Each structure stands twice: as structure tokens, then as C-alpha cells.
Amino acid sequence: MSAFWTLSTEQDSCALISDAGASLNYGHLTSLTDSMAVALPEKARRQLGFIALAPTPALVAVYLHALRSTRHVPLLLPPDLHTDLLASLARNYQPDWIALPGNHRGAAGYAPYWASDDGKILVRTGRTLSDPELYPDLALLLTTSGSTGSNKLVRLSYEALAENAIAISKYLNLDANDRVLRPPLAKV
After folding, report:
1. Position 184 pLDDT exceeds 70
2. Which end of the chain offers a freer environment for a tag, N or C, measured as fewer CB atoms within 10 Å?
3. Where are the extended beta strands (E) located within 10-161?
4. Where does the source fall among the domains of life (predicted)?
5. 161-185: burial string, b at 16+ Cβ within 10 Å, e else
6. Residue 94 CA, distance from chain mean position
């Protein structure tokens, strides 16, 4: 079994079903994910990005492209993240880009770079004190539940992320005919 971000070779199979009931097949999702190569800025170094991951085709494609390219390390955030909290996180972590639902205001110091009906990407406009080098095996950052009262991030390697997805699908005995009820995408 390959990593989920490589997407299915069965191009006509259903990949996503929106809240409105519209479906998107793997062929369209693959094309949309490939198109994110021009939507996400490229630099010589790996980049940190934030994704306020709503279940929209554009934001799911940003997430998948970030994993596939290995040039971006996304930090997944809830799509309804309050603007003040986003601004605080952006000040602390200084991501190179932020992907948001189309109706989200964004954060100071970030300018529009790409937009569609269901998502947008903002890029950092100012300089930072430093651009830390990201660990080569780092694939994804997730926030913790906050039960300790301090902000902590879970760091996942590509291998750990793929193995976790496989373990969950085996434990739940999932196959191509199953539909998963949507958990908060920032927790997956």
C-alpha cells in the first residue's frame, strides 16, 4: 500500500464528497493537487506553511501537494481558527505561507498569492529574524489538544504518517467502498 498522498490510480473513483454532496474523483483531485505546484511558492529551502484545513477541494489539494512535494511542511489548523489566534501563531512560527478557507481574513504581514472559490494562499511579505532549517524527514505538524495549557506540536515523519494511516485503515477494516465520517481534518 502506498502513502495516501500519492493518491489512487483509480482515477474515476470518488475521492471526496463535499458538505453540499458534490463529489470529486481521484482524477480531478490529482489534477488539482498537481496545479498547487504553481499555487505554493517555491524557495531553495524547505518551507513551513499553515493550512486551516477545511474539507474543500482546494485546501485538501494544498495539503496533499505539500506532502507530495517534500518542499513544504504543513502545520494543520482548524478552518474556523479565530483571526487573533492565527495572528499569534503566525508571529511565533513565521510560516512562509498560509492556506485558508476563502472567507477567512488572514493575518498581518501576509499578502494574497493565489485564490480560488474555496481557498486562498497568503505569503509572508516581511523578512524574519531567521529562517530555520526544517528537519529533512519532517512531513507534518499537528497541534495537541491543549490539555496542558501550553502550545505543543506533534511532529510526524513521512514514514510515521504513512504507517499511521495504514494502521488506522487496517484497524477499521476500511476499503474503497467505505466512507469515513469527517473528523476535524486538522487532527488527522
Report:
1. no
2. N
3. 14-17, 23-25, 47-52, 72-77, 97-100, 110-116, 119-124, 138-143, 153-157
4. Bacteria
5. bbeebeeeeeeeeeeeeeeeeeeeb
6. 16
Number of domains the chain contains:
1
The CATH number of whichever domain residue 18 belongs to comes to 3.40.50.980
Comparing C-alpha atoms, which of 30, 49, 51, 29 is closest to residue 41? 49
CA distance 105 to 184: 21
Average pLDDT over the chain, rounded to an integer: 86
How far is it, in rounded angstroms, from Cα 187 to Cα 96?
A: 22
Set of cell numbers at residue 47: 518551507
pLDDT band at 180 (very low <50, low <70, confident <90, very high): low
Q: What are phi and psi of 89, to 5 degrees?
A: -65, -40
